[in-house]
Amino acid sequence: MSSSRSVRKLEVVSPVPADIDIANSVEPFHISEIAKDLNLSPNHYDLYGKYKAKVLLPVLDELESSDNGYYVVVGGITPTPLGEGKSTTTVGLCQALGAYLDRKVVTCLRQPSQGPTFGIKGGAAGGGYSQVIPMDEFNLHLTGDIHAITAANNLLAAAIDTRIFHESTQSDKALFNRLCPPNKEGKRKFSDIMFRRLKKLDITKTQPEDLTPEEVKKFARLDIDPNSITWRRVMDVNDRFLRKITVGQGPEEKGMVRETGFDISVASEIMAVLALTTSLTDMRERLGKMVIGNSKAGEPITADDLGVGGALTVLMKDAINPTLMQTLEGTPVLVHAGPFANIAHGNSSIVADKIALKLVGPQGFVVTEAGFGADIGTEKFMNIKCRYSDLRPQCAVIVATIRALKMHGGGPEVVAGKPLDHAYLNENVPLVEAGCVNLARHIINTKAYGVNVVVAVNKFSTDTEAEMNAVMNAAMAAGAFNAVICTHHAHGGKGAVDLGVAVQRACASGNQQLKYLYPLDISIKEKIEAIAKSYGASGVEYTEQAEKQIEMYTKQGFSGLPICMAKTQYSFSHNAAEKGAPSGFILPIRDVRASIGAGFIYPLVGTMSTMPGLPTRPCFYEIDLDTATGKVIGLS
Amino acid sequence: MSSSRSVRKLEVVSPVPADIDIANSVEPFHISEIAKDLNLSPNHYDLYGKYKAKVLLPVLDELESSDNGYYVVVGGITPTPLGEGKSTTTVGLCQALGAYLDRKVVTCLRQPSQGPTFGIKGGAAGGGYSQVIPMDEFNLHLTGDIHAITAANNLLAAAIDTRIFHESTQSDKALFNRLCPPNKEGKRKFSDIMFRRLKKLDITKTQPEDLTPEEVKKFARLDIDPNSITWRRVMDVNDRFLRKITVGQGPEEKGMVRETGFDISVASEIMAVLALTTSLTDMRERLGKMVIGNSKAGEPITADDLGVGGALTVLMKDAINPTLMQTLEGTPVLVHAGPFANIAHGNSSIVADKIALKLVGPQGFVVTEAGFGADIGTEKFMNIKCRYSDLRPQCAVIVATIRALKMHGGGPEVVAGKPLDHAYLNENVPLVEAGCVNLARHIINTKAYGVNVVVAVNKFSTDTEAEMNAVMNAAMAAGAFNAVICTHHAHGGKGAVDLGVAVQRACASGNQQLKYLYPLDISIKEKIEAIAKSYGASGVEYTEQAEKQIEMYTKQGFSGLPICMAKTQYSFSHNAAEKGAPSGFILPIRDVRASIGAGFIYPLVGTMSTMPGLPTRPCFYEIDLDTATGKVIGLS
Question: Do residues B128 and B88 make contact, with C-beta atoms less than 8 angstroms apart?
Fold first, then answer.
């Protein structure tokens, strides 16, 4: 357990410089050094430049017999639109564990979406003296995983519309003959992927010419109901004008127009597949069974029915390997899968966590981030991700800020891009105390999974001791294992040593039980209701559309899946304006969708935008390249 | 000039196995070995896995004082839809020069679009025993350049619609205040990029508060005319339903609907910028001055007016570095920029060619490919690319096949996916002789640039000696420097040794003069007419829209740019059905657009689709991943 070679301690400056300046002030280690510290040999990874490497999946098989390290999930209280420093805390905690407490540690983070990077929010590499570096490589392109998802998602989308088009213009026989063209010897053959559809249709024949006309029709005509299509196109750009569009208006598409829209790429089901898959074989099956809509007879139509599940897997074959990077203090980071826990499940990948747990080994620590507040991020971590991974965390961290607690206690609205009200810049203990109801409910909910909860108060320079004491007291009263003040933004790992010690203790005394919020074998509605209750709701109401979808998915045999709520991150309830710990409300379910490949049912709570927009003055106004040095400037 | 270490000679099998089987039968050298052969040190490149590396642009500065090697451009006769093996010949020629003729050589190829790879055509790594390997990495994602172009193109598109939206809902003052928000000290500031717009408006003030209300309006209100927008979104997928769409139909976009469409990513102006740029600084300027449409007053609106030129450069900063790969026989390949010379300029990049010319040094060879027939590929190579690069080829290769010549001589239509007519499988010398008019015109046109022309007959197993002799005779009669038969598809480099020898001789006796087809300082119409004449046209006719655009671009000061014709690759004329060497026709110009950042005017000849479609049974039906080995299967 000796200090690893690449770790360094930072010399910090006060006041804290801009993120990009701190990031640029440190020369990163060559990523092969970071890999070496983890006992990875060069055949275990592919370099992507000097500071990124993809760790190859076979590592997992090689390490199968090794023991896992401790598993820590970082969630948060209900955030303000400014974010409460969850990524920063995740990184700071790991810098403390690795650079100050002499532990093997891997941070598992999600790849940022380029939408927010150029939009309002900026990058997601942490901040201050707790960052992943190089932050421009982390925030832009990385190793192409999100681009691969975009490409795969949109290939499937093109396949859907084009298939409907070709079916509309051809007879059963012509369609079949084109699908199974004669080879050089004039003999028709099924391609391998077609046997998946044949099997689904209970057709056991292996030669195209043996099919009856009825079987030809069943096989070749998917008969997709255009109104049932839930598969949308995606783009990793904040492009609000693509939220609702009409496609097919060209003369060659012969009037086959259809209303549809684009989501941001990280909301793609393929991102969820990437996050939840456990192997190449598993990914192939998940991608193939993604349901894009129904036939007019109500049968689910899959990517494999369209013949494209294999191609999607090929597009995703490198994306399944997590990307190794480093923190400012030289501790290793695995970056994988995507954010947006409000409209997706928003957790980093199972594959990354599993590899990391083996690499750190017993007494080592893997710290993984769950997006937004614990009501959505941690809930999905426990009930979806841990179900598929069969992993159990020993400790859950909940990040809180005085700023957000004041908001929950009744402080004025916090708006990104607008100056903060003085309530947030001056001591106001009663506001903080009132807001702790939000923290308390997150602690109680998280503790119910059977893990030790450590509260990390991410200290800002304006926070006072009295305010902090109020939070610590409230946290302990609500059942936290411990509550600590962190200053990792200003001090790097050194500022999170107390948090590191608390997490170590929580893990050492953590048990191996995970109590899920709901069992899988109850109805879709019962599962939704169990989650709604954890939000404080007294009931759930469904639109007619939601009822219809639930009935259909149940009939199609999908009711045994876990639930991934699409809900605002700004409140326990569906109403972003309801701060604190609302209760007694009725949770409205507007629609229900299914991500069969990823493996969950996906209720939409109220209206949730799946494509952000750009403000009048987006972040990109500050971003440029210093063409003399090749360095990025203005990225935040 | 000794044989380099990584070169190997192939042992070939007959009949020729499937492309992917040949590709998989060879263990590629680690790309650092290939780099070493080129005298590149590890700080000259970034690894992307084991078989790809990005060669870093500063190499060019380091090698500034070195002499260039010989420069060879490969064009073709007017092709059939099956392609005439131009990439295969380019690769085979280089395998011959490197592995058999002991020359330093670099092949410069374009990155394939994923659209055709999953659509009808399949990949573009060459074929048979003349391929770039690993062919799956070449055909899919590569090092992310096309994904970067997609991301940058679509960020700009989102910026356009969103800006129009925000301008429509805000007063001049509100707009200005949002564009220049107060900092922490309450002081408003211009961001650096805003000084580009201020300069364009002749405003020399540096403080926002000093602007008069009129200047505020001029600065903040771009007043883009929605009908003038030529910037479309892109996607690297064959998605015909995106050819014409309506965006902005969501309720939050308040009725601001607009008709637009998607092109395939390689048709983006940003791809053209990548291909034609010469440095980071040059790329920054080109991206910033891309024109997306006009203000209602007729002023061109640029990416920098929208504040996004810097962000686009940041997105493209790695894409400017070409990707090093290898052929089956271990010779180096630089892959950069994109295909589609029909709707774009379709040449590999200036940067790649320049680096390659320095790396091979005097007596070495750089072979670069120009897309489709010489009428469009080579023409654009000479008149656009060489103009911006200031490089001159010593030799131009024209690839011909007996199949295509028979088609030009009056043979039946050749359709992808349908069996070939027997005319193409049996000897028919008169058809070949008749078709040689097409070859002859390409030779005459190419020779007019002042280069030696070598004709490479890409031999198929069904071609007969009499047919080949007919081609050789016709080629020499038309003024070719030499004409040779090649069997590199069946035999690798060994099959192109005669071609290699001919190219060596042609280069040794080649001069350094390049006679452009047209000077830049004549009118747009005169330039279009010079190119039309080289097609065999007796005149040009313009639609009213084309006339209007030419007038506008001339008024805006853009008439000094070269011309990039968007024309079918299947005929010298605008009519794909007119084979051979048509003449006396009137070339119709439907519309004229401008790629000001890339640096050319862009007439549309007839109707050209900028977004391909998928057939009933796309290539993807055969493509899958062998999840046990991780190998791609079915890629062609």
Answer: yes
SS3 category, A191? coil
Q: Name the least confident of A105-109, A341-345, B284-288.
A: A341-345
β-strands A600-605, A586-595 pairing: antiparallel
Output the CA torsion sign for B610, B611, B615, B621: positive
Q: Which two tokens stand for residue A113?
A: 């979406």
CB-based burial label for A423 (10 Å; 0-12, 13-18, 19+): middle
* Topology, domain A146-312: Domain 2, N(10)-formyltetrahydrofolate synthetase (3.30.1510)
Please name the helix (run of DSSP H) or strand (run of DSSP E) that holds residue A44, with its range, or none: none
ipTM over 0.85: yes
pLDDT for the residue B378: 96
The minimum CA-CA distance between B213 and chain A, rounded to whole Å, is 19
Q: Which residue of A has its CA nearest to B161?
A: A241
Q: Which two tokens stand for residue A417?
A: 């891009």
Question: Is A625 within 8 Å of B280 when comparing Cβ atoms?
Answer: yes
Minimum CA–CA partner of B140 in chain A? A315
**Alpha-carbon distances of A432 from A84, A460, A479, B277, rounded to whole Å:** 15, 14, 18, 56
Reported as a single tens digit per residue, the pLDDT across A11-32 is 899 899 988 889 989 999 999 9
- Is the CB of B159 less than 8 angstroms away from the CB of A618? yes
What's the CA dihedral at A169, A173, A176, A181 to 10 degrees?
Answer: -100
For the ranges A40-54, A215-229, A620-634, B39-53, the lowest mean pLDDT is seen at A620-634
Q: Which pair of structure tokens corresponds to residue B312? A: 């686009």
User: In a mutagenesis test of the A interface, which of B170, B620, B622, B631 is the best target, namely the one with the most A β-carbons within 10 Å?
Assistant: B620
CB contact under 8 A, A246 and B241: no
Q: Which of B43, B162, B241, B246 to mutate to test the interface with A (most CBs of A within 10 A)?
A: B241
> Residue B636: what pLDDT?
80
In this complex, the residue of A50, A181, A314 whose CB is nearest that of residue B623 is A314
- Chain A residues touching residue B175 (CB < 8 angstroms): 616
Confidence of residue A2 (pLDDT cuts 50, 70, 90): very low
Tell me the CA end-to-end span of chain B in Å, nearest whole number.
35
CATH architecture of A19-143+318-508: 3-Layer(aba) Sandwich (3.40)
The CA angle B401-B405-B410, to the nearest 5 degrees, is 150
Contact B350, B276 (CB under 8 A): yes
What does the DSSP 8-state code read for residue B205?
-
Give me the CATH topology for the region B146-308: Domain 2, N(10)-formyltetrahydrofolate synthetase (3.30.1510)
Write out residues in chain B with pLDDT < 70, as ranges.
1-5
From the options 3.30.1050.10, 2.60.40.10, 3.20.170.30, 3.10.410.10, give the CATH code of A524-605. 3.10.410.10
Spatial separation of the C-alpha atoms in residues B531 and B528, rounded to whole Å: 5
Segments making up each domain of chain A, as ranges: 19-143+318-508, 146-312, 524-605
Backbone torsion region of residue A75, taken as left when φ is above 0, otherwise alpha when ψ lies between -120 and 50, otherwise beta: beta
d(CA B36, CA B42): 8
Q: How far is B248 from chain A (nearest CA, A)?
A: 4
- The answer to whether the beta carbons of residues A453 and A447 sit under 8 Å apart is yes
**CB count, 10 Å around CB of A461?**
11
Structure tokens at B232: 């479309």
Chain B partners of A237 at a C-beta cutoff of 8 Å? 151, 154-155, 157-158
**Tokens 């997105």 -> residue:** B315
Answer whether B616 sits within 8 Å of A179, measured CB to CB: yes
Q: Are B307 and B337 in contact (CB under 8 A)?
A: no
And the tokens for B9? 């000679």
Report the gap between the CA of B46 and the closest CA in chain A (Å): 4
